[in-house]
Design a protein that fits this description.
Strand content: 15-25%
Structural class: alpha/beta
Strand order of the largest sheet: 13-14-15-17-16
Shape: globular
CATH architecture of the largest domain: Alpha-Beta Horseshoe
Number of helices: 15
CATH topology of the largest domain: pyruvate-formate lyase- activating enzyme
Radius of gyration: 23 Å
Number of domains: 3
Bound molecules: S-adenosyl-L-homocysteine, iron/sulfur cluster
Distance between the termini: 45 Å
Largest sheet: 5 strands, mixed, barrel
Helix content: 25-40%
CATH class of the largest domain: Alpha Beta
């Protein structure tokens, strides 16, 4: 979501006539997009802003405009100007359309401008409209890597996980209209996207809250009744340039039979789901108010594995939640093994202001959090290796992204399972095309292989 928001900011600036600076050191304007989810992310943003504003105040870069956007802007409101003296402006994540205007005013000499997100649904709709407008008039390269792109389908979050600041800084759920989503998806495809990931904090809640009703004049030939399967079907049908559709983040209670069928039967929908588990201990899951226990989570995993061939499931896990014992931690370890995750993001718990769990003592020592983090990552490495080895010898369809980040002689792309595949680029290969790659080597996070000719693909009948 942050990549998406950064993209939109870049596009809005370009649409307003600004050009990309070749380097941050020579930029006239630097805008920091922030995340409040963990303390460390906020510390990094504050550190960065502090350095930039110090350069400005010391006279080294006197004209520099430094702006803040994203969740931290909402969380800190006007207080940010006390924390970061000299900050030019701060703007909430749903008010990004105001950024060019704020930059203009700061370039003209104003400073300390605070633009909060407006309250209420009307404001959310205005934000949705301006997001489309920004997508339409933009030029230049997005921050994300073509051919992959993101489109937000659900703003905010109505859940109240005990540790999470997101609902406080991103407001309540509002689902976007399917036609607005399609317009934006089309625009992304026109700009070169082939793989679009639909975003929502709890994306399976799409269309479930806030007075949303699916437009009656958009039918479902596949017979879906739930909003997310209907949306997937609608986008796949209406935009032929879209090769792949993903959605994130998932929730086990949203894994319905219809959704599983949509994943299996709509060819564009990728066999990949990010399904944050957070913990494998029922006691901790209850304390976190996640709305499911371990058994319910595993039932969702089983339904996905039975219904969607070759599906890859990835997850988020928090270690060191208040009161997490060794026994709870071991339950998380065993649950990760039981679920057989392809990949996992592990986070060390940090208390966030205003959340329910911030009232509890943060009683797992930092050293112990680091140990648990390292154990889970080592487990995941071994598991990732084992799972990826199953792909060796198989031919996979890879959507080409471009030169590999580590070695520009090699190129990389992704499979529908979201696995990174590295290969030698054949002549004429271009980002956004698909190649078939025979996998020869597996690593925990990456597959390596050789591009095969199309005729090799057809098994002799
Ligand atoms: N909406 C997503 C999560 C968004 S935040 C969902 O419900 O799955 C991304 C991840 O950050 C979460 O899944 C969680 O693992 C982690 N996280 C959130 N709050 C945290 C906190 N206070 N401390 C540590 N990790 C946290
Ligand atoms: Fe946060 Fe829970 Fe909402 Fe995810 S579902 S954004 S973890 S409150």
């Amino acid at each position: 979501m942050n990549v998406r928001d950064s993209d939109l900011t870049a596009r809005r600036m370009r649409a307003a006539g600004f050009a990309d600076a070749p380097d941050e050191d020579v930029a006239d304007v630097v805008i920091v997009n922030s995340c409040s989810v963990r303390e460390k992310a906020e510390d990094k943003a504050l550190g960065k802003l502090g350095l930039l504003c110090a350069a400005r105040r010391s006279g080294r870069r006197p004209g520099l405009v430094v702006g803040l956007t994203g969740c931290m802007a909402n969380r800190l409101a006007e207080n940010v100007f006390g924390l970061v003296p000299g900050l030019s402006f701060s703007v909430g994540p749903r008010s990004g359309d105001r950024i060019p205007e704020l930059v203009d005013r700061c370039l003209a000499g104003e400073s300390g401008l605070w633009c909060p997100d407006p309250e209420g649904a009307t404001a959310h709709r205005a934000a949705a409209r301006s997001e489309n407008a920004a997508a339409r008039c933009a030029v230049g390269d997005p921050v994300s890597r073509p051919p992959c792109s993101y489109v937000t389908i659900l703003y905010g979050c109505n859940q109240r996980c005990s540790y999470c600041i997101v609902p406080h800084v991103r407001g309540s759920e509002e689902s976007r209209n399917p036609r607005d989503i399609l317009a934006e998806v089309r625009e992304e495809v026109r700009r070169g996207a082939r793989d679009v990931c639909l975003l929502g904090q709890s994306v399976m809640r799409y269309g479930r809250a806030g007075g949303f009703s699916w437009p009656e004049d958009i039918p479902s030939p596949m017979g879906f009744t739930e909003p997310l399967p209907r949306l997937l079907e609608f986008l796949a049908r209406e935009e032929p340039g879209l090769t792949r559709i993903r959605f994130t983040s998932g929730h086990p209670l949203g894994v319905t039979p219809e959704l599983v069928r949509a994943m299996r039967e709509i060819p564009q929908v990728c066999p990949h789901l990010h399904l944050p588990m957070q913990s494998g201990s029922d006691r901790i899951l209850r304390a976190m108010r996640r709305g499911y226990d371990r058994g319910r989570y595993m039932a969702a995993v089983r339904a996905l594995r039975e219904g969607v061939p070759d599906i890859a499931i990835t997850t988020d896990v928090i270690v060191g939640y208040p009161g997490e014992t060794d026994e709870d931690f071991e339950l998380t370890r065993s649950a990760m093994e039981e679920a057989g995750f392809d990949n996992a993001f592990v986070f060390k718990y940090s208390p966030r202001p205003g959340t329910a769990s911030a009232q509890l003592p943060d009683d797992v020592a930092d050293e112990e959090k680091r140990r648990r983090d390292a154990v889970l990552l080592a487990d995941q490495d071994a598991r990732g290796q084992r799972i990826n080895e199953r792909w060796v010898g198989r031919v996979v369809e890879v959507l080409v992204e471009g030169p590999s980040l580590r070695n520009a002689e090699r190129w990389s792309g992704r499979t529908g399972q979201n696995k990174i595949v590295v290969f030698e680029p054949p002549a004429g290969v271009a980002a956004g095309t698909s190649v078939r790659v025979k996998v020869e080597l597996a690593r925990p996070q990456t597959l390596y292989g050789t591009v095969v000719e199309p005729q090799e693909l057809q098994p002799a009948e």
